[in-house]
Specification:
With 315 residues, the protein is mainly α. The protein has 12 helices and no strands. The model has no long low-confidence stretch (mean pLDDT 83).
């Protein structure tokens, strides 16, 4: 187990390093220039060059990368190029909202996806199965940005209600916070639950056809015991895998949801950093988000041996 943990941790660190390095170099070859955008169209080349030197953008890319890595080692990832605020402080203020949206969306997707997937498998090829499969296909086919826009339009026209514009944390105003995040969580959770539904159904259909399930039924065990205690547990390994992957995808994909619903989270901060060519903020955001995603996948790998003893976690 120790060797397995060391191997997976080392691989995770390599992945994070590669992702952040690629992000650092790729964003510097994108069209546009922060200094020119900040000074405007009437800026002279001398003014642009002076501002680039002030922000450290005139140095070779490898030198900039070396300085950034040295700053990370010292615990100083830098300051935003557009606001001159600490990138750590800006991300820290936005992180709780994104974490709340992600946790609630994942929880909602699990609450919806697993039970409906189990019911669909148990009642295979029946009306309930077909209804659940249509529900799942719609969730995968409808883009999140369109579903979010539709939800806002529908709620405002038919219920004369829109989420509050001013954000309040859960600890400041629990009801106001839940009122604001309800629609984004429903939109993100529905899309993710569709994937869990389909995977749960396919895993359960396969497990229910195994010999030990027929043996359990032959022993006189009730249908609920057979499904929940014997079938579902053995079908959970691929489901847990996709839940972990979806949690990581949600963290990285909150740009769309937070932008549509005007929520001041990490996704919206990242979108602003991209549009404003705020290299320092963007590369730090990618570092933190990729670290979370890799950590989630590591935890999923480690959970296998507890869900299914047949999984050999030694290598």
């Amino acid at each position: 187990m120790t060797n397995y943990l060391i191997s997976r941790t080392t691989s995770a660190m390599i992945v994070v390093a590669l992702v952040t390095a690629l992000t650092f170099f790729i964003i510097r070859v994108l069209p546009g220039d922060l200094a020119s955008a900040r000074l405007g169209e009437n800026a002279t080349p001398q003014d642009v060059a002076a501002l680039q030197e002030q922000m450290g953008l005139n140095e070779p890319v490898l030198v900039q990368y070396r300085d950034w890595i040295n700053g990370l080692i010292r615990g100083d990832p830098g300051r935003s190029l557009t606001t001159d605020l600490s990138v750590v402080d800006q991300l820290t203020r936005r992180l709780p909202l994104t974490a709340e949206l992600t946790v609630l969306a994942v929880a909602l997707s699990v609450i919806i996806g697993i039970p409906l997937g189990v019911v669909s498998a148990v009642r295979r090829d029946g009306p309930t199965d077909h209804a659940v499969r249509v529900f799942a296909v719609l969730g995968q086919a409808i883009p999140s940005f369109w579903l979010g826009t539709l939800a806002l339009t529908f709620s405002s026209i038919y219920f004369n209600w829109v989420p509050p514009v001013t954000y309040h944390s859960f600890f400041e105003d629990p009801l106001g916070n839940l009122e604001q995040v309800a629609l984004p969580v429903l939109v993100a959770g529905y899309a993710q639950s569709a994937i869990i539904m389909r995977l749960t159904r396919s895993s359960m259909v396969e497990v229910l056809s195994h010999d030990y399930i027929r043996t359990a039924r032959a022993k006189g065990l009730g249908s609920r015991v057979v499904v929940m205690r014997h079938a579902l547990r053995n079908a959970l390994v691929p489901i847990v895998t996709i839940i972990g992957a979806q949690a990581g995808a949600l963290i990285g994909g909150m740009i769309i949801v937070e932008t549509v619903f005007s929520l001041p989270g990490v996704g919206r901060l990242t979108f602003q950093a991209i549009t404003e060519h705020d290299y320092t903020q963007l590369q730090f955001n990618v570092l933190v988000v990729s670290s979370f995603v890799v950590l989630l996948n590591l935890l999923v790998d480690l959970s296998y041996r507890y869900l299914d003893p047949r999984v050999d976690a030694s290598g």
